[in-house]
Amino acid sequence: RKEVEQDPGPFNVPEGATVAFNCTYSNSASQSFFWYRQDCRKEPKLLMSVYSSGNEDGRFTAQLNRASQYISLLIRDSKLSDSATYLCVASGSNFGNEKLTFGTGTRLTIIP
Amino acid sequence: NAGVTQTPKFQVLKTGQSMTLQCAQDMNHNSMYWYRQDPGMGLRLIYYSASEGTTDKGEVPNGYNVSRLNKREFSLRLESAAPSQTSVYFCASSERDRNTEAFFGQGTRLTVV
């Protein structure tokens, strides 16, 4: 079982729709969580960090449920420019050294 | 502002050849990482280095060696390339503290024939 699991998709949704991604992690010692965005043939870039209290950045909302060990990302009013692969990341502590573990990514295509 | 710089961007190797992928960051980060990305497999950690002088194996270390030359540079070496090592390789760096962003290089597309 992978440490971080995501539905690979693809998710094809119409412009303006709301889309939600979930991600589960197996290492209960994980301390920090993130969503990264990766465009085709580009490097991943940070979309947002995920906090226990939940956090929102414009049309994007991230939630963390430590008890169930899952992370979610909600995109409202989706735009064509949101088409990308979204990577869930858990940061696990290994003797005090943070190690970033990525999920396989969920591919999203916004349809005009 | 360079951030994380990887070289080369593209490389074709013959089976059995060796090469070193170079990575340098100018953000004074302690932690550096090497990942490989394959279709359907996501980003898999090869090696990481929490600080200068230390390295640790990740999920898929076999066939690779690394060297944390100094705080800025973290190189990845393939001693005897195999077709299974055809992949896109990403170097990344971050601060060691939690909740800090990891910055990635632009990637190296390696093909082993």
Q: Which pair of chains has the greatest number of interface residues, and how are they split between the two chains?
A: A-B, 25 and 28 residues
Major beta-sheet overview of chain A: 6 strands, mixed
User: With helices defined by DSSP (H or I, 4 residues minimum), what is the helix count of chain B?
Assistant: 0
**What spatial form of chain B do the alpha-carbon principal axes imply?**
globular
* Approximate helicity band of chain B: under 10%
Report the β-strand fraction of chain A as a percent range. Answer: over 45%
The end-to-end span of chain B amounts to 35 Å
Instruction: Please work out how many helical segments of chain A DSSP would assign.
Output: 0
Average pLDDT for all residues of chain B: 92
- H/E element sequence of chain B: EEEEEEEEEEE
Which value, in Å, is the CA radius of gyration of chain A?
Answer: 14 Å
Please state the overall shape of chain A, judged from the principal axes of the Cα atoms. globular
Taking all residues together, what is the mean pLDDT of chain A? 90
Order of helices and strands of chain A: EEEEEEEEEEE
Number of strands of chain B: 11
Stretches with pLDDT under 50, minimum 5 residues of chain B? none
Low-confidence stretches of chain A: none
The total strand number of chain A stands at 11
Characterize the quaternary organization of these chains: heterodimer
Largest sheet of chain B: 7 strands, mixed
